[in-house]
Write a structure and sequence with these properties.
This protein has about 60 residues and is an all-alpha fold. About 65% of the residues lie in helices and about 0% in strands. The radius of gyration is 15 Å and the shape is elongated.
Length: about 60
């Protein structure tokens, strides 16, 4: 449940990360598997940041 937003929807990036990781698990160890795992990791991080930004209080622009 850690990947769930407050609204109950799952980020598209988090779903994509899960798909990449599932695909990586089907492969034998090697460069292709490692690459898919790295892509999944990056997508997961982006998904977490996206979720945090959606629910963060609006910050006034200080520029």
């Amino acid at each position: 449940m850690a990947n769930r937003n407050i609204s109950g929807e799952v980020s598209t990036l988090l779903l994509q990360a899960k798909d990449f990781l599932d695909e990586a698990r089907r492969l034998k160890p090697g460069p292709a598997r490692n690459e898919l795992r790295e892509v999944a990791k990056v997508l997961h991080e982006l998904g977490k940041l996206e979720t945090q930004s959606k629910f963060a209080p609006d910050q006034p622009d200080t520029r």
